[in-house]
Amino acid sequence: MKYFPRMSPLRIFTCIASLCTLAVFSPTDSRAEQAGLCLDGFCIGQNIQDARFDKAAWLVPQKGLIRNACQGVGCQPQVAFRGYASEDQAKLVEAVSWKYGLQNYNILTTGNLGTLRLYKYECNPSARGIWGERRFLGFYRSIPSQYLTVVGLRLIGGQLTVYRIARQYPYRDQNELISLAQKLHVHYGERVLLYDYLSSNAYSDVIEQRKDGWFARSTTFNPTDFSDNAAELVLIDPRTRDLLESTSMPESGEIKPLPVRLSQECSRSLPIQ
Predict the structure, then answer these.
(1) Cβ neighbourhood burial of 259 (10 Å; 0-12, 13-18, 19+)
(2) Per the domain annotation, does 272 fall within a domain?
(3) What pLDDT, in 10s, does the model give residues 81-94?
(4) Which residues fall within 8 angstroms of residue 199, CB to CB, at 6 or more apart?
(5) Of 40, 60, 105, 172, which one has the fewest beta carbons inside 10 Å?
(6) C-beta of residue 57 within 8 angstroms of C-beta of residue 140
């Protein structure tokens, strides 16, 4: 497994609460309005079966990753993954036992990709908190730019599906930041809000204006250390826009807890042991 050094990638995905105040750049390009919400071949609504997932060099965080093996009856392999082949049950339990961050995201890796492609339902109603649906993160660096990018997945229609894409862009000065924003605007048009300085309004703006993402600075400008200057692009699934948390707390920008919809397989009788 490949690890990434000295950084907090979860900030890119969930802790962008101190982002930016709205700044309109250029008129919309009608072609950009039709562009998909995609980045590097990963698109909102794309499921994990897509061959693009095989081509990414998935990273594993050095810090904040723990193995949280559940000891309860509900997460035993034959219970939590009732209906799966017995050899797959143990693999699935191992894959979902690794948690990252305060919100207990599960991690997508090169090693567990094949297993997570089997993940279509779970019979453990407390997989993510109380009656909470699991969410998964995959981290990679773009080629050749090496931008750190986070892909978020959740179950939609029985497949792990992309519902969030976030990327961190380093920049050296305001002109470089504006140039980058203009390029993103050409691609995404008015679907993505563009900000030019820090604020905590991004989530509420996206909700109120029914946008599909935002781009903004995530740190104050540091002229003495260019590596400390970062901006972030976040693309969201329009179907989860109304579920966004709009406060400025650290968990802002994530979607509210989603109820687990247990599969009919979960009602099957277990064999007597």
Answers:
(1) exposed
(2) no
(3) 999 999 999 999 99
(4) 18, 19, 20, 21, 22, 216
(5) 172
(6) yes
Does residue 113 contact residue 60 with C-beta atoms inside 8 Å? Answer: no
Q: What is the pLDDT of residues 22-77, one digit of tens each?
A: 333 333 333 333 358 999 999 999 999 999 999 999 999 888 899 877 777 777 89
Contact call for residues 54 and 48 (beta carbons, < 8 A): no
Residue 273 domain-assigned (yes or no) = no
The closest alpha carbon to 75, from 96, 57, 59, belongs to 96
Alpha carbons 96 and 77: distance in angstroms, whole number: 11
pLDDT at 17: 27
Percent helix, strand and coil across the chain, each to the nearest 5: 25, 25, 45
pLDDT in tens, 139-169: 999 988 899 999 999 999 899 999 999 998 8
Residues in the chain: 273
Q: Exposure of 220 by Cβ count < 10 A (0-12 exposed, 13-18 middle, 19+ buried)?
A: exposed
Structural domain of 175: 2-267
Report whether 193 contacts 212 (CB < 8 A): no
Closest to 222 in 3D by CA, of 154, 164, 171, 260: 171
Give 40's DSSP letter.
T
Tally of domains in the chain: 1
In a domain, 71, yes or no: yes
The Cα–Cα gap between 134 and 193 comes to 28
